[in-house]
Amino acid sequence: MRSRCSDTTKSFNTQTFIHSGWRSVELENERGRAGVQTWQGDYRKRFLYAFVAVICTIAAVGILRLAGVGNVFDRFLWEVRFQFDHRPVSGDIVIVDIDARSLDELGVWPLPRRIFAQLTDRLIAEGAQEILFDVDFSGTSSSEDDRLLAEAFERAGNVSLAVFRQAAAFNGAFGEIVNQPIEMLLENAWPVVVMVPMESDGRIWNSLYGYDIAGMSEISAAAFLGDHTGQTGGTFGLDYSIAPDELQRLSLIDVLNGTASTGRLFGKKVIIGASAQELRDLFAVPVYGVLPGSVIQALGAETLMQNRALAVDGQFVTSLVALTVLFLLMLTRIEGWSIKILILMLTAIALELVAFQFQKSFPVLVQSASAHFILFFAALIVVFRELGFHKLGSHLAGVGRRNSERMLGQVFDDSFDAIIVLRADGRITAANRTARSLFPAETLVGTAARRVLPQELADAALAVFGNRSFGMPVSTTLYAARENGKRQFIEYVVTRSEKTVVTEGRRSETQMLACLTCRDVTEERESAEKLKYLARFEPITGLLNRNGFEEELESRVQAALQGGHNLCLVQFAIANLDQIMASLGFAYGDRVRQAVASRLKNHAAHEMTWSAISTDVFAGVAACEPGEDQIQELIETVRSAVGAMLTIEGARITVRLKFGYVLSDGRTSPDRLLKNAGNALAKVRREGSSSVLAFRPELDETLLRRCTLETELLKAIVRDELQVYYQPLLNLADRTVFGAEALLRWDHPRLGPVSPAEFIPIAEENGYILELGAWVLNRAMKEASSWNRPLDLSVNISAVQISQGNLVATVSEALERARFPAERLDLEVTESLFIDENLDLKFCMEELRALGCSFSLDDFGTGYSSLGYIPKYPFSRIKLDRSFVTPTMASKQDTAVIEAVLNLARGYGLSVIAEGIETPDQAGKLLELGCPLGQGYLFGRPMDAASFSALLKNAA
């Protein structure tokens, strides 16, 4: 029983095991069949995806090729390969350059053909094998030169000449013309084509085998020199790995002179061509930038001689390789986009290395641009497929976030303001570059704020943590003293913010921060203080300027009204400051003003406030007693203190002072006081008779009349209010009139006759003297031309006419317009003209004398040291001032000056006219002394043109 049960149990277990085994096998088979089905489905999906990727890539590359991008990239790759390869030249070709040095030494272009004849003979003598002229001989030269060149070609027997086609315009339409050498030259030479085809990028990549010229197929210069024996049509690629800079090149002038090394031309093929930039036979090429046409022809010949005529090929093979790599990458299950990108990069490098080696070994330019485009698009497909749009977007977002954080950090660090961030415990968590420079310390971040910041800043920053009602931040300025003793102003503002942080327990906490923003405003404060100072004070002298003085004057006027005392306002001018600056320079002018201001402060500042209201005018105001004794005493104090001799950098300078002042009881406005004192000063400066003048009410009338005259003078010519009067000039011996002096007169319809002494200075100040002077010259010459006999005409000229106008042109135009003889025009020059050394008076006088005019020195003896001027300037006459013609002229003292002037004039060959003769005794005495000429009321007062003309008729 026990044995049977055991067998039964064993049988049951065996059956169960077998059943289970079969079940397992069935399950494994089912899993296998499912796996195969999944793999087949995934494979079909990958295959379809790869096929679509290949088709799309082919389409994209085709579009790029149609757009011309492929050609551009191929040429770039070829050029790179050329640069990494090097082939020496054969040495069989020599280029004779028509270079800039040859043109300079020969001095002519186009070169005479006799020079080319000499060059041909020289080359044959040196043993040249072939001679090719890359020179245009299509036009005729002189018959003799053409004959000499043809004979030289005949002697040589191995000459080739350039033939080419070029664009030309015919009756507004464009076409081409053929440039061939003239028949005389072609009889003894071979024509060769020298054209080079230019590609779409403007560079020369190919050369010609030949070209159809005038119905005949002519071989190219490159093919001829390269011993090409095949077709004479089509093009071949130039091999720029052959180094054209190794070609032998000789200057034309050296070959002509025989200074080129002997033996360098023997058995050589010689190309004569232009390399000078001005001859414009230059072309853009790969690798070398720009080459002359003759060098390109030589490079073409070298290419053929070395069996390197390049053809373009390989696009299909390289593209197929790239497409295969793309297809396989789309099928593979390799994970990781970076590995696939690396595979694509290695494929691109391998393709380029193979293409380079192939180009180096065979005359083929491999087109690999399309393959590189395919690999590039493959990389894009891999990135998009492996990362996916979402992953790519997330990746780009992460990159953008990091860039933003980096940019914000850069903005924070580069901020113009100092920014410091603090935690509630008082430690600094962040500080930008400006903060680190403003608060220098070994370290700011992580340090307690109270240790490295000024106390007030630290307290203000930490105060925001305890102030729950913290409102809008307010800007505050802190004053701090630097270690060097200088002041420092820091403007700051404190703000509070919060940020959420995650603790170690992954819990979120809110952390409060204080942001301290500050800047150093020391320079701004100091600049503001400086501007505030400059608004009231004059920087050179340190005295009040006009604005500051007006404010001071306002307060003084109010004080005078309230205190019941008088006020004195003084203005004085440095009358010779312009002369000081003209002779010594502007720097000395500033030092003179500083010295004057210093003396005012030291010697004349007692109860008086001084200011510099303009460059040469100073003003002071003080309370004073009634009467003028105190003000006169004050002016004398200023004169003695300021007017004393100044010594500035070794130069001894004396200042001349002019004073104007006004007294007031406080009822006159500040503006009026300044105006009145200024009027008094202006009058004393203008008249020069005294140095001190008090304001009087009549000065206002004088000023008003001056303003009226200035306005009316502008209208005087238009209204015909001006006239030219004439005073006769006589020979004292026979009382005959030899000339007249033109004098300007103004008869105003309302003001009546106005003296020239009054309106001429006004015209000189406002520049209107230019128009008046021109008008007088034209009117006087016109009226003098109508007199019944030719007389000399004397016209006064002003310094303003020389300094501001063109006196030579004015006189020349007036002479031409009136047809007045220049030799009868005498221009009277006063001694005051010689004060201004900036006037080029001598040059002006020499130009006028060249026209024929003469000159008289007017008012001689009244002003300056006239003796030094007489030999320097082209004077013909001296006019002795009326002050020397005394009423009696009885004593030796009365006649001593006159005799001296007459002796001086005779010594220099000048004539003398005595002015102001009023009595017969004066005329007789002057004649006895030897004075031949005179002028004065005895002979006639100034009169209008009609009266003067009548005087001449009666005298006749």
Description of the structure:
With 956 residues, the protein is an alpha/beta fold. The protein folds into five domains: 45-87 and 313-408, no CATH class; 93-307, no CATH class; 415-524, Beta-Lactamase; 537-695, Reverse transcriptase/Diguanylate cyclase domain (Alpha-Beta Plaits, 2-Layer Sandwich); 712-955, TIM Barrel (Alpha-Beta Barrel). Helix content is 48%, strand content 22%. The protein is built from 30 helices and 36 strands. An eight-stranded mixed beta barrel has the order 28-29-31-32-33-34-35-36, surrounded by five helices. Strands 1, 2, 3, 4, 5, 10 and 11 form a seven-stranded mixed beta sheet that branches. α24 runs parallel beside α26. The longest helix has 65 residues, at 2-66. It is flat, with a radius of gyration of 53 Å. The protein starts with a helix and ends with a helix. Mean pLDDT is 83; it is low at 1-25.
Q: Order of strands side by side in the largest beta sheet?
A: 28-29-31-32-33-34-35-36
Mean pLDDT figure: 83
The CATH architecture of the largest domain would be Alpha-Beta Barrel
What is the SS-derived class?
alpha/beta
CATH class assignment of the largest domain: Alpha Beta
> What is the fold named in CATH at topology level of the largest domain?
TIM Barrel
Kindly give the count of domains. Answer: 5
Number of helices: 30
Largest sheet: number of strands, sense, barrel closure: 8 strands, mixed, barrel
Global shape: flat
Low-confidence blocks of residues? 1-25
Give the terminus-to-terminus CA distance: 196 Å
Q: Strand content of the residues, in percent?
A: 15-25%
* Total E-strand runs: 36
Computed over alpha carbons, the radius of gyration is 53 Å
